[in-house]
Amino acid sequence: MPNLNNNDQEIWQTALGQIETKVPKASYETWFKFPKTRGKQISEDSFLIESESAFISEYLEQRMYSIISDVLFKLLDKELELKFKVLGSHIDSELKIQNSFQSNKNFNLNLNPNYTFENFVLGASNELAHAASIAVSENIGKTYNPLLIYSDVGLGKTHLLHAIGNRLSQDGSKFYYLTCEEFTNEYIKAIRTNKTELFRNKYRNADALLLDDIQFLMGKEQTQEGFFHTFNSLHLAGKQIVITSDRPISSLKLLEDRITSRLSGGLVVDIQLPDYETRIDILKKKALIKGIKIKQEILESLSNKLYHNIREMEGSLNKVLALSELTGKELDIELVEELLGSSDTNSYFADPEQIILKVAKYFQIEIADLKGKSREQSLVIARQIAMFILREDSQMNLTTIGLLFGGRDHTTVLHGIRKIQTDAATNQNLRRDLLAIRSSVINN
Ligand code: ADP
Ligand code: MG
After folding, report:
1. Start-end of H helices in 157-294
2. Is the pTM of this model over 0.70?
3. Cα–Cα distance list, 351 to 80, 294, 356, 420, 437 (Å)
4. Computed from CA positions of residues 123, 126, 128, 134, in that sequence, does the dihedral angle turn out positive or negative?
5. pLDDT by residue (tens digit) across 180-220?
6. How far is CA 128 from each of CA 3, 116, 131, 425, rounded to the nearest angstrom?
7. Quick check: CB of 126 below 6 Å from ligand 1?
8. Ligand 1 proximity of 121 Cβ (cutoff 6 Å)
């Protein structure tokens, strides 16, 4: 008899849990209850149910087909053809394994177990998004609803969304995590098979819906219509909705303004590029998760390279970790530099002139005014922002930055940078400005 893998076991156990609530107790115990049946998906579109006797097989096929098929449709997002077969007499040997799987109440076998709040490194760049995600998972549907997390790619949106899922899972809440693409495909399939009611019920039965990458809906108007209805009915029913986007909502160009206004009706939080310290902490955490210790100087060198996002930085770290495993000894910095290219050619030093240029352009002011002496409030802020970005991204020292701004002394520069640092912690608009400017410098 073929071995069942864990996933099959879990799916069928979960299906049984659902079936139990749909048929009379006696019927469940007679026809379904383990060890009377077991099931597994045997191909893209078929699912095999093995049972203790031909009698049971026949009964299930003739009388229970639609119940089983509906439950599986809900679980696997797929219309599957059911096949029935009589099981051999080897059940006992697998009994132990089978029993170790409790019926699984939530439906999220696709969460990355490493994407937790514990593994999420905090910094000024992501504090708000993190706090909002925690708040939401501790108070489903009651604090910010919907919550929308926005950032450029590779900065931690999916990580936070999974972290919420992993937390809800621990707490025993029912929720779904899926990408907007999966959600949409499922919705379309439901329409085609006349199962929209089933589709809606499936989600209405959960406490929370975590949807990744809403930008997928851009330009797909019909899909947006369906999305909007589902979204609305869940929202009205007080279900928590968390959505991520790699564009600001204003540029998502969603159907009319209905979706946009619904989305902005909740809380929108952003994630920015992490600063140097946070980058080091993230690298440390990632190495720790993999159980490999890396020298501080190597971490520093790694986080000084030019990256557009954390995913890229992790790519470099993974190369280094692979190298470490290969050589089997503690890595030295030269070897790492060789592997990744020297820091002269590849370091995270943005061009100062570019930064000045982009800041001026962003605020639509003259470079001379930006560098000049005017105390006009809007110019002062733009100037401080420029100083902050220069310090962060071009790693210039305070004195040099001062020189660039008409010979201001380093305490003035420091004051400006501190001001931005402090304000950014609470001021979302400022954070958005910083994000936009810094990515325009990097993506130049
Ligand atoms: P996004 O969904 O925004 O494109 P991801 O969530 O996939 O980005 O993040 C990319 C990688 O960066 C993931 O491996 C994630 O774990 C890691 N990452 C992002 N932010 C953090 C953080 N604050 N702490 C630890 N790892 C992070
Ligand atoms: Mg993502």
Report:
1. 157-170, 180-192, 196-204, 221-236, 258-264, 276-289
2. no
3. 57, 30, 9, 20, 13
4. negative
5. 888 888 888 888 899 888 888 888 888 999 999 998 888 77
6. 47, 16, 5, 8
7. yes
8. yes
